[in-house]
Structure formats: structure tokens, C-alpha cells
Amino acid sequence: KAEALYNKVLSKHGSESDTLWLNVATFYLTTLNQASKAHGLLPRALQSLPKHTHLQLTSHFAALEFKSPNGDAERGRTMFEGILGSFPKRLDIWSVLIDLETNRGGKDRARGLFERVTKVKGIKAGKMKKWFQKWEKWEKANGDERNQGRVGKVAEAYVRRVAEEKGKEAEV
């Protein structure tokens, strides 16, 4: 009965609300344990919704895979990797993925994600400073002294690398 109601509402208001699509996916994945129906909703949603909503909606669907007891975290990771492949400078998306990995107990994966961000080219210095501060705070809460010291070393290496790159640009 609820499924029929959701389908009716989607057909009537699906082009207006990304939240509606996410709610229906949550219903299928969490309540009915019908992952295949939930997975089929994202392509339909992306067809009906305006383009500016696609990034957020896709990241919410990926997060749903992590959070739902019937979701597949590996599928969520793959979806996030697709997003980050297209938008590597979006630190907000990186942060969401790190939080999800941490909540699932994947501290080593989260640590690896923090480090991967430092290899992304073109992120502004101010954002990277905040990123290193966030990483250091995360390590204080989740890591040990060795890993906390590693953040400082990675930050120093990052600063050296950026300075060298700027020096090479000045020569040209």
C-alpha cells in the first residue's frame, strides 16, 4: 500500500523534489529490504531532476548505502569514487565519505582518504590548511600519537611540494 502511494507521488512530483526520491529509496532499502528497486531509483531521479541537484542526490544515495542495514557499503564507496573522480576538489564530499567510513569502523580507510586529498592538485592553500587541521583533530579523536605526528609530516611535505611547483612555474 505504501509502495503504491510512493509511486503515485513520484509520478506526480518526482521532477520537483530530490528529497522525495531519497525517501522512496530509503523506504525500499531499509523498510522493504528491496535493494534492486532502491538502486533503480537513482537513474530515474537523475532523468527527472534538474542537473544542479545531481551531485548532492548521488552523494545522498551513496551515503544511504552505508547507513542502511540492507545497504552495500562497497556500492556506496564506488558511487563516491565516481563523484570524486569528477569533482576531486570537493572537500565536502571527501568529508562525508570519511565520516561514513569512520562510523563503519574503517579508520584505516578514512586515514587513507585524508592522505589522498593531499595529492589532489589545485586546492587552495586556505582550504588545505583547514583540511590538515581537520585531519589532525580526527587523529586526536581516532588515532594514536604516531599517526598524529604523521599528519604534521605529510603537511610539511605538502607545503614543500607546492613551493617547488610554484618555483617551477616562476621559471617558465
**Low-pLDDT windows of residues:** none
Helix content: over 70%
N-end to C-end Cα span: 68 Å
- Category from helices, strands and their pairing: mainly alpha
Oligomerization state of this entry? Answer: single chain
Summed over residues and divided by their number, the pLDDT gives a mean of 89
Strand content: under 5%
- In total, how many beta strands? 0
Characterize the overall form. Answer: elongated
Radius of gyration: 20 Å
Order of helices and strands: HHHHHHHHH
How many H/I helices? 9
Largest sheet: none
Overview of this protein structure:
By secondary structure, the chain is mainly α. It is built from 9 helices and no strands. Helix 2 (18-31) packs antiparallel against helix 3 (35-48), helix 2 runs parallel beside helix 4 and helix 4 (54-67) runs antiparallel to helix 5 (73-86). The protein is elongated, with a radius of gyration of 20 Å. It starts with a helix and ends with a helix. The model has no long low-confidence stretch (mean pLDDT 89).
In terms of topology, how is this protein built?
Layout: H1 2-13, H2 18-31, H3 35-48, H4 54-67, H5 73-86, H6 91-103, H7 107-117, H8 125-142, H9 145-171
Helix pairs in contact: 1-2, 2-3, 2-4, 4-5, 4-6, 6-7, 8-9
